[in-house]
Specification:
The complex is a heterodimer of chains A (515) and B (233).
Chain A lengths: L14 H14 L1 H22 L6 H24 L7 H13 L2 H5 L8 H9 L5 H11 L1 H32 L17 H38 L1 H17 L4 E3 L3 H7 L8 E3 L4 H23 L3 H10 L32 H31 L1 H5 L27 H10 L3 H19 L10 H11 L3 H20 L5 H15 L8
Helix pairs in contact in A: 1-9, 2-3, 3-4, 3-6, 3-9, 6-9, 8-9, 12-13, 16-17, 16-20, 17-19, 17-20, 18-19, 19-20
Chain B lengths: L9 E5 L5 E5 L3 H26 L4 H25 L5 H6 L1 E5 L7 H9 L1 H5 L5 H9 L6 H6 L1 E5 L23 H12 L6 H10 L9 H15 L5
Antiparallel strand pairs in B: 1-2, 3-4
Helix pairs in contact in B: 1-2, 2-4, 8-10, 9-10
The chains are: A mainly alpha (515), B mainly alpha (233).
């Protein structure tokens, strides 16, 4: 199992969320899961009918009884798919006999009535545990996973019955009136055909719910392990470690089988070898260490002790392999050529199909042209009657400031005072502020952009103006304007009067002199 | 940063401010349980009411039928609007109804999603609803799809950090936000993880713990976590 290949976001969830993840898994791999389910369940359904010929009422009970075996197929697919390895058909069929044989008796007898079956089955099937070890493992996984699993069983049983009834109701709704059938006849199992119909409905309901049940139970199991073993942290730490290894210059960690290295118990064989990314010396060191590793494993394999042999077997697993040295020849300057895709075999069938598609496309084009021509001929009005698109005028900037292009009027101070006395303090201050900006832009050459905020203007003025008095006035005016405009707190009358009176002193150029 | 290729039941909603909200969408199990609870409450109330109304004869039956109608159609609507998007059953399971953009559910949405319950109930016992729930991306039944609503898990109230006491040490190198969170979570979940597992995890970060081993490495990581949450000793 490689955690970095896991296809689901691992984080500790609450149990209900975990079952939702199960539903999401089922939605992600519906094809493989349902194929596996039907590959097993459908033949069994037919077979049971053949075996119980004349006693078809037995079939639903037997199917229900055999559910633990049927569940193994979806769980097998999900268990592999989740770790990035969706099993193909051939492997599935090859492994199916073992899958069904493993602890079948227990699953069908005393464990059949385990209310948390979906949660416990992964321990048996995926971890391959049995007997006392299995019991201890279940105890370790613990109670918090079990309660929701029981609820899962209860809810899925209800869902299944509900869906069966829904299917019957749907069939009854879709049967036309002229068919002489009453609804209760759909529930009649006296006739063999009625029984077969009910069996089929039950089978459909079961097929809808059972893979979900398995997936949800599997997700509960995963979630419990994520809690207990902090899989999310392991992934995060591995990523962090990889990042750290990358940031260290010229040092490449060749293989990180820490646990394995400890097991072998020979510290001189440093499996976590650091080596420079290039250079023959480092390559030699790596090769030497690989060689050491291989000899060590070979020694273990040759040993008489079965434990050591088992250890060697484990260490040979590709996922635990400490290092791989790959050497190959390559042209020095030529980039590697991408593999050329094999052309599809062009049989007569394929050509015929292509021609058919081509004709169909031409025909569709012709049809489209004909329809277009007909529409044009019949209803040219619809094309003519288009209204021209209206372009909305850009709204003038009335709030705040406008773009100052002309110097301010000389009597702005008095005009503003008039506005103030007319009870429009906001307008008055706006006039003063805009006038100041216009003055700063035209007289003092301040490059005020239309999108500048008050603070921008102030900063610009502070940077560009030499006149400390003017700057002080502008700052005071800006603050007063901001308080009025945004906080609706106009200054008192003396303050406003002072501003109006002072304004011409800074911005009105005496007649005759020019800047 | 969430990897979109990984399976998860989280729906990401980006607000105009550029903040990504994570809505943990609730699926069939929790919703079925909440529905069961609500049904028990409703029918329990109706049963209790019928005990009293039976004394009134036909008039009592009339009142009872009206109550039945109101409870059947408007019980969820009223609770979803006035009780924070949750009927009592949903509240018990920690669920909440919200609009698809994460906003609180409004009148039109609540009405639509609960009137269309009738469609979800078709052909019998929520057949269409269950299938829609299992098939749709965010576990929406038909009513949810029509109203543009989601049923999500309400986030539990934030708990104070529970780091084991001890010295605090700055981490030896700058860490990203996610990495910091992982370190803090490692320290916080000390009570859940068994000691051997913690040592295994700490061994992964040999670069961070400057070669410490075993319990010492675990302690070093915890010290970094304490530093990250702002403790200084």
């Amino acid at each position: 199992m490689r955690l970095d290949a896991v296809a689901a976001e691992l984080r500790p969830r609450n149990s209900w969320e975990a079952t939702d993840l199960g539903a999401t898994m089922l939605r992600r791999w519906p094809g493989p899961v349902y194929r596996a389910w039907f590959a097993l369940a459908l033949p069994l359904f037919v077979l049971l009918h053949l075996l119980c010929w004349g006693h078809w009422w037995l079939v639903p009970w037997l199917l229900w009884w055999l559910k633990p075996l049927l569940d193994r197929a979806p769980l097998y697919v999900l268990g592999h798919a989740l770790f990035g390895d969706v099993p193909d058909r051939r492997r599935f069929w090859r492994e199916l006999p073992d899958l069904l044989r493993c602890q079948a008796l227990a699953a069908l007898t005393w464990r059949r009535f385990d209310p948390a079956r979906s949660f416990h089955v992964p321990v048996t099937q995926l971890e391959g545990l049995a007997g006392k070890v299995r019991r201890r493992r279940l105890r370790d996984l613990g109670q918090p996973g079990r309660g929701p699993a029981v609820w899962l069983t209860v809810i899925c049983a209800h869902l299944e019955i509900g869906l069966d009834l829904a299917l019957i109701a749907l069939a009854w709704m879709l049967i036309p009136d002229f068919v002489d059938l009453e609804w209760y006849e759909l529930l009649d199992d006296a006739e063999p055909w009625g029984q077969l119909w009910l069996n089929a409905v039950g089978f459909c309901g079961m097929s809808l719910v059972e893979p979900f049940y398995v997936a949800a139970g599997f997700a509960l199991y995963l979630n419990r392990r994520t809690w207990l073993e902090a899989w999310d942290l392991e992934l995060g730490f591995r990523r962090l470690a990889a990042r750290l290894a990358q940031t260290r210059p010229a040092a490449v960690v060749v293989g990180l089988a820490l646990g394995a290295a400890l097991w072998v118990g020979q510290p001189s064989v440093g499996f976590a070898a650091d080596a420079a990314s290039d250079g023959d010396l480092e390559l030699d060191i790596v090769k030497m260490r690989c060689e050491q590793w291989r000899t060590r494993v070979a020694e273990l394999a040759d040993s008489t002790d079965p434990v050591q042999r088992a250890l060697a077997e484990t260490l040979r697993d590709p996922e635990l392999r400490a290092c791989v040295v790959e050497e190959r020849w390559r042209w020095r300057d030529r980039p590697e050529r991408p593999a050329v895709e094999k052309p599809v075999a062009d049989g007569a069938l394929a050509r015929g199909f292509a021609a058919g598609v081509e004709y169909a496309l031409w025909f569709a084009l012709g049809l489209l042209a004909a329809v277009a021509a007909w529409r044009l001929w019949r209803q040219p009005v619809t094309l003519r009657g288009r209204r021209p698109r209206r372009v909305l005028a850009k709204p003038a900037l009335t709030l705040g400031r406008n773009d100052p292009t002309a110097p301010p009027a000389a009597d702005l101070g008095e005009a503003a005072w008039r506005l103030w006395t007319a009870g429009q303090p906001r307008e008055a201050l706006r006039a003063l502020y805009q006038g100041s900006l216009a003055g700063l832009a035209t007289r003092h050459g301040l490059p005020v952009s239309p999108s500048a905020t008050e603070e921008d203007c102030l900063r610009l003025a502070a940077a560009r103006l030499n006149d400390a008095k003017l700057l002080e006035f502008f700052r005071r005016l800006t603050r007063v304007w901001q308080a009025t405009a945004y906080a609706h707190r106009p200054p008192d009358e003396t303050g406003a009067r002072a501003l109006c009176a002072e304004w011409p002193r800074h911005f009105v150029v005496p007649a005759g002199s020019s800047p | 940063m969430p990897n979109p290729a990984l399976l998860d039941t989280v729906r990401h909603v980006e607000t105009p401010e550029g903040i990504t909200l994570k809505l943990r969408v609730a699926g069939p199990m929790a919703r079925a349980l909440a529905w069961g609870m609500d049904s028990l409450i409703r029918y329990g109330a109706l049963w209790g009411l019928s005990m009293g109304l039976v004394l009134l004869g036909w008039a009592g039956l009339g009142v009872w039928l009206i109550t039945l109608f109101l409870l059947e159609w408007f019980y969820p609507v009223v609770f979803e609007i006035y009780a924070d998007g949750a009927t009592p059953g949903k509240k018990a399971l920690g669920l909440q109804v919200v609009l698809a953009n994460g906003a609180p559910v409004d009148w039109p949405a609540a009405l639509i999603r609960n009137l269309l319950r009738a469609v979800d109930f078709l052909p019998a016992f929520y057949g269409f609803g269950v299938v829609a729930l299992l098939v749709s991306r965010d576990f929406q039944r038909l009513g949810d799809l029509a109203a543009g609503t989601l049923v999500i898990y309400r986030d539990p109230p934030a708990k104070p950090l529970a780091l084991p006491p001890g010295p605090a040490l700055p981490p030896p190198l700058p860490l990203s936000a996610a990495e910091q969170q992982e370190l803090i979570a490692f320290a916080e979940r000390g009570s859940v993880l068994n000691p051997e597992r913690q040592e295994e995890l700490a061994a992964l970060l040999a670069d961070c713990t400057s070669g410490l081993r075993g319990v010492a490495a675990v302690e070093r990581l915890r010290a970094h976590a304490r530093w990250l949450v702002g403790e200084r000793t």
